[in-house]
Structures are given as C-alpha cells and as structure tokens.
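Why do we bother with holo predictions? Because pocket geometry can differ from the apo form. Keep that in mind while you read this record for aspartic acid.
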Amino acid sequence: MSRVLIIHTGGTIGMTRTERGYEPNGEFFRSAIYGLSDLKAADIPQWDLVETEPLLDSSRMSVHEWNKIGKIIADSYEDYDGFVVLHGTDTMAYTASAMSFMLCGLDKPVILTGSQIPLFETRSDGRDNLITSLMIAGSGRVHEVCIYFGGLLLRGNRTMKYSADGMQAFTSPNYPPLATAGISIQYNEAAMRKREEEPFRSVQLREVPIGVLKVFPGIRFEHFRPMFTGALRGVVLETFGSGNIPDDNSVLASITAEKNAERTVTVVCSQCPQGTVNMSAYEAGSMLRQIGASNGRDMTTEAAVAKMYYLFSTCDDVDVIKDMIGKDLRGELTE
Ligand code: ASP
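The structure, written out:
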C-alpha cells in the first residue's frame, strides 16, 4: 500500500470561526481528521500528518514558509510515495509555483489542496479535495507539483486563483488539466510531465527583493523609478495584452538606462490570463525589447514571481537569469 505525507500549513480547510473571522485551529483539525472514517477506507493510501508552525492564513506565506515546506518534503522524500500539502487558497498558486522550482528532479506527486469552506463545516468542499488529492498522491501516476481543487488536477505553476467564493477556485488558462475527477479520475497522460532523469534534490530560496507592477492607463513610470534602479532585483511587469505599455515619452527607457538599473531584471507578463506575450507585435511593446526586458511568454505572474526567487537564489549572473526567465524549466511556459 502506498504512503502519503499530509503537510498541513493552514488555510480555510483547517480553520474555525472566531470573533475576528476564520483562523487556523490545529488542535481541532488534528482531532477531527484522525476521526474521519473516509480517510480509513481501503482505497485511501496510508497517511501521516505533519504541521508547519505556526499554521497560517496563506496571505502570510513567504519564502520562509516555502523553505519549511520544501525541507519537510526533502527530508521525508524517500519515506513516502507522494505528498499532499494543505494550504490556503489565496496564495496556493504562488506556493505551488515555488515548489515546482525548488523540488528539482521531482519524481513523486506533490499535490496542493485546500477548500473554500472549512473541512468540518456541513457544505465543505474540503472533503473531496482532500480525499481525491490523497488518491492522486498515492497513485504513482504524477511526477510534478499540482493543485487539485474542485474536480481538476492542474499543473501548479500554470495555475491562478480565479474565484474568491466559487468551489472551482482555480484555473489554468494556458495549459490543460492533468486530470479530471468525475465518477473516476481520468488522467491526461499527454499533458503530464514525464519521470525526471536527474536525481531529486531540493533548493532553499533566498528572500530577494522583487516586485510586481501592474500597468494601467495613465501610469507614470517616474513614480516607480526606485523599482527599476536598484531597490529591486527583479520586477514582473504586468502589461496590457500581448506585452504593451503606455510610455510615449520613453520614460521607462531613460529610467532603465540609469546607473544600477542593469542589475534589475524586468520580466514581461500579460494582464490577460489567457495567451502569450509577444513584444514584437505592436510598436507599444517594442520599448520593452529595447530596454532588455525578458519575455515571460505565457507564464502566470505567480510563476514569474516564484521563478525569479528561484533564479536569484541559484545564480549570480544577471545575464544568465535574464535568459533563463524565458526558458521552460518545469513546464511553466510555452517556448
Ligand atoms: N484566506 C484563506 C487562506 O488563503 C483562504 C482560503 O484558504 O480559502 O488561507
């Protein structure tokens, strides 16, 4: 029988209501989950439970917590066939993206899941999310980091939170689901990553200063000058459509020509969830090529943020990082 490690990090799935709103409640969750008869069924893999301390609303997740989760998986990698990470939905797509880069040569399923309604409330979506995630994690059929939620298994670094209150909270607009869970779980073998050749190893991330700037009509880049001139190592620029910005007076070009600006890596992503960046399509995007911005192609902002943390944690050469941004490392973009 396969063995799965459940790593509880917080999020609605394990929360109870308090006068300040929902909060993680480890003690309640532990006693309740061990009493859940469904998790003792014959077709559920054997499982163990660990918790990260403190349990968090996922809006508080940072590189520090990603490193904790990565270390737990690395330390117990040989003892389990798969991993289920219980996580808040708000930043689950960021954590899934980060894990995909941190866990190199991953050969086992790492499935992030959670719920919109706490597990022990009557209408909770957490029951199916947890049970199906356990089955997928024990199946031996997946060799990558995924999010399972609302009946869909999605590649983690292609995913974004799409609904604040719907049970199908996640979407993967530029990549098909890896499996759909109806009466049975149907795997989309063609879409899944193949077994890794390189041996498994995990990377810890550094808390590099990076930022995200969403372009809007009337933006004045001079208000954001420090982002490009040394305050940040990397900027994810969320542009219009296929990579367009309003910069009639070439302000961004003069800012990025300033001293120290060459150390900042700018990655161009799109505000459109679906489709890809093409900086040669319009004159309005050509400036970004001139200033040496990297093409984020069809990468989500979540994946771009995680990839920058990963690249800055593993490489010191800015030119190499600029080049790697647009390369497919873990199936996060289409080259
Ligand atoms: N605020 C919660 C969290 O991300 C939302 C959720 O889990 O659904 O931790």
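The chain has two domains: 3-202, 210-325.
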